[in-house]
Amino acid sequence: MSEVFGVEKKPFADVWGDTVDLKHLASAMIIGILISLTCYIGGLNYLQANFPKLPVNLMTAYALLIGILGCLLSAIISAKLFKPKRTLNEDHFSEADRDAVLDELNIDREKEAEELKTVGPKIVKEMKDLQIYDLFAKKSVDHKVGE
Amino acid sequence: MDALFFNELLWGLGAALAGGIIFSGIGLISGTDETATIAPLTLLIILLGFPPVAVFAWFIAAAVSKHMTHAIPTALMGVPGDTMAVPMLQDASVLRRLGVPHIALRKMISGSIIAAFVALPISVGFASLLAPYAEAVKSWAPIIFTVAAVIIAYTSNGRWASIFVLIPFAFLMQGLNKMAIAALGKSVFISIFLGIAIGPMFADLVTLLSPVSRHLLLRSQPREFWLAPELKSWKGYFPNPLHVLTGEQKLYTAAAAAIASLTFTFSPVGMTVMAGEIISSRVKSLYQRLTTSLAAMNGVTEATYIAETVIPLMAFGIPLSPMALGPAAPLFNAPPVFTSQPVHNLHNLLAPYQFLLYGFIGVMVASLVAYPFSMNYARKASVWVLQKVSQEAIISMFTGLIIVLSYYEAGVVGIAISITIAILGGILNRYFGIHTGVQYMTYYASGYLVLTLFGIK
C-alpha cells in the first residue's frame, strides 16, 4: 500500500475502455516494450548462433513466438505489480426490486398478464422455476407496490 | 494419401483446441478488441508455418470461443464484451435487473452455438455459388475496394468526415509505405494493420499527455462493476444447448443466423439490431421476448463472424467484409506467406470440403471448450479477471505485441510506421467516428487511389 500525503488524488484515467493509474500505466508500457523486444531480439540472436541451418523465415517466426511469449510475461509481471483499479459490487435482488424494475420500464401489467396466457408450457415452466412467473401473471388490480 | 489426411486432421484438431482454449480466456476480458487479439496470434501461427487447414480450424475455434465467453461480461456485468455485443446490452440488462442474468447468458451462448452450426454450411454453400464470379471480382478488386471504402465511410459514424479523410488517409498510408520501401526495399502490411487496430489506445495516450485535453479522460476514482449472484440450474458439466432454447427460439435463431450468413458485406452491428427489432415486434410477453431476441441476436453476431470470414475467403480470396478486414485479415494477407494481391492464401490452398470439415472442427471444439466453460464458470472467471488482471497488464501486453510485430516486419521503421498510423488513425476514430473498418478499407484502396489520382506507383 502506498502512502499518500494530504488529499493528493491518484491520477486515475480511462484508457482503452478501463481505468488505470497513470504512473502504473507508464511503467507497465515500459515493461511491455523492454521485455518483449528483448525476448524477440535475444531469441533471434540465440537461434542464429545455435541453429544457423534453420531457414530464415522460420527462424524469424520462432523468434516472434519467443517475443510474443515475452508479451505474455510482461502482462503477468504487470498484473503482479499493478492491481486492478476496479471496485466490485454484488447485485442483490428481492421481490420488491423486481416489481420496481417493471415499474421503471413502464411495463403494461395488464397486457403482460394477457400475453402470458399465449406463452408455451416450456417458457412457463422456466419462468416458474425462476420464480418470476407470478410477477407477470398477477393483474394490476391485485398488484400493490409493497416494501 | 490417407496418412496425409490423418496428419492434417490432427493438425486441425490441435490448432482448434489451442485457439479455443486461448480465446476462451481472452474473451473473459471485457472490451478486448477482436481485431487486436485474434489477428496478431493468427498471424503468428501462419508465420510459424502451420498448415492451411490448421490455420483455418484455429481461426474458427478462436473466433467462436471468444464470441462465446464474450457474452459473460455482457450478461453478468452489463459491460459489452466487444463492439458487436452493444445491441444486446439493453435486453441483457433488463434480465439482469430481474435477477436472472444467468438465463440471459445461457440463452445467448446457446443461440450462438446453434447459429454457428447453421452458418457454416450456408456460408460454404453461398461461397460456392459466388465462386464463378471470382475472376471478375479479382480483376476489379482495386475498384471494388475503392467503392466499398466510400460506402463504409458514408455508413460510419463519421459520415462526411470519413469521406473527406479518405484520400488524405490513403495518401498518408502509401507515403509511409514508400518510406518502408526506401528503407528496406519492401512494403509493409502488418505495421499499418496493427497501427489501425491499436489506434484508439494511442488516441487516449495522446489525449492524456496533453494538458489541454487531459481532463477528458481523468477519473477521480476506480471504476465500479456490478456483478450478479450465482445461480446454477442444470446438472453435470455439459449442458445441452438444444434443451436451453425452446422450439420457437431455436427456429428464430436458426432463421436469423441463416439470413445473416447471406448478408456478409453488411455491418454486423446493423444486422444484429435489425434481428432484435424484428423478433421483438413478433414475440409476445416480456420474458419470452427478451430471451428469444437475445438468443437470436447473439446468433446473428456469431453467424456474421463465420459468414464474413468464410464467404469472401472461399469465393474471392480478397477481404470484402468487416470481419475480413479486421480479425480475419491475416487469413487473406500475411506476407510473405499469404497475399491478397495477387491472391495466394487459404482461397487457393483449401478445397471447399476442407473449409466445411475444418470449419466444423473449429465450431465443434469451441462448443466443447468454451460453451461448458461459460455455462459453468462464468461468474468465478469474471471475478478472477476483475480482481487479478489489471488494465495496465493488458496494455503492457498489447504495447509489447505491437512493438514486437512491427519490429519483426520492418525493424525500427516498422515501429515508427505503426505508431504514426496508430496516433492519427486513433484520433480520427475516437473523436471523428472514422472507425477502423473505414481505415482498413481505405488501406486496401490506397494503392489504386494514389496511382490513379497522383500517378504514383
Mean pLDDT score of chain B: 90
Low-confidence stretches of chain B: none
> N-to-C SSE series of chain A?
EEHHEHHHH
Uncertain segments of chain A are: 1-8, 140-147
Largest contact between chains:
A-B, 77 and 67 residues
Please count the beta strands of chain B (DSSP E, at least 2 residues each): 4
Radius of gyration of chain A: 29 Å
* Radius of gyration over C-alpha positions of chain B, nearest whole angstrom: 21 Å
Q: Going across the major beta sheet of chain A, what is the strand order? A: 1-2
Give the helix/strand class of chain A: mainly alpha
Order of helices and strands of chain B: HHHHHHHHHHEEHHHHHHEEHHHH
Note the main sheet of chain B.
2 strands, antiparallel
Multimeric status of the protein:
heterodimer
| End-to-end Cα distance of chain A | 42 Å
Strand content of chain A: 5-15%
What class would the helix/strand composition of chain B place it in? mainly alpha
**Mean of residue pLDDT values of chain A:** 83
Helical stretch tally of chain B: 20
Topology:
The complex is a heterodimer of chains A (147) and B (457).
Chain A: E1 12-15, E2 18-21, H1 22-50, H2 56-81, E3 86-90, H3 95-104, H4 109-116, H5 121-129, H6 133-137
Antiparallel strand pairs in A: 1-2
Helix pairs in contact in A: 1-2
Chain B: H1 2-27, H2 34-47, H3 52-69, H4 71-77, H5 89-97, H6 101-130, H7 134-139, H8 141-155, H9 160-184, H10 190-209, E1 218-219, E2 223-227, H11 241-244, H12 247-262, H13 268-282, H14 286-315, H15 322-325, H16 329-332, E3 339-340, E4 343-344, H17 346-349, H18 352-388, H19 391-432, H20 436-454
Antiparallel strand pairs in B: 3-4
Helix pairs in contact in B: 1-3, 1-18, 2-3, 3-6, 3-14, 3-18, 4-5, 4-6, 4-18, 5-6, 5-14, 6-12, 6-14, 6-18, 8-9, 8-20, 9-19, 9-20, 10-19, 10-20, 12-14, 13-14
